[in-house]
Amino acid sequence: MKLGFDIDDTLINLREHAFHLYNRKLNQNVGLDVFHGLKTLEIHEAFGLTKEEGGRMWRDSMEEVYFTDCPPFPYAVEVLRELEEQGHEIYYITARPKEHGERTKQWMKDNGFPVRDDRFYYGMKDEEKLQIIGQLGLDYYFDDKPRVLETLMDQQLKVYAKSNSYNQHLHIPRITCWSELKGILEG
Ligand SMILES: [Mg+2]
User: Fold this and answer.
1) What are the φ/ψ torsions at residue 158 (nearest 5 degrees)?
2) If you measure from the C-alpha of residue 27 to the centroid of ligand 1, how many angstroms do you get, rounded to a whole number?
3) Is there a catalytic annotation at residue 126?
4) Is the dihedral of CA 92, 167, 100, 74 positive or negative?
5) 5 has which bridge partners?
6) Residue 57 belongs to domain spanning
7) Could you tell me the pLDDT band of residue 53, with boundaries at 50, 70 and 90?
8) Same domain, 81 and 122
9) Could you tell me if 106 and 56 lie in one domain?
10) Coil/strand/helix, residue 82
């Protein structure tokens, strides 16, 4: 089968990684309970930052957020490797900016994800994911972002939300932990 995955907050715990980083950089100690209660994908509100300040903070932190030690979600690496060994095709489709694309691909390899160069897509806008996903003829696609998931819900492929505090309002199949993935594929 052809399986497509978003990266940030789908396969790796990027927001929480950024949350810890913001606490350090801003010399604050905002608790994880606040993090888990956030209804927005953006995390700046938890630190009392305006949208503009939050945008600047994100841009200034991007390098560190992306390329340090962000942990993959539990079982993500193991399960994807196993599926790849079984002959499934694993595709990555991330909206990370073009200039970070190749380093992101290498980072994913370094962190144990099974990555083939011709199955790694980056630098597109949210709405362009729809096109790429359509062209690839995926059987399954996994993402966390409401705006992306909403554009895909009417498509042929099976779309799953990686469950998170900001996508609970979507009526869509969801995956909470990657240990569930094989069960999902077996139907
Ligand atoms: Mg994402």
Assistant:
1) -90, 120
2) 27
3) no
4) negative
5) 92, 142
6) 14-67
7) very high
8) yes
9) no
10) helix
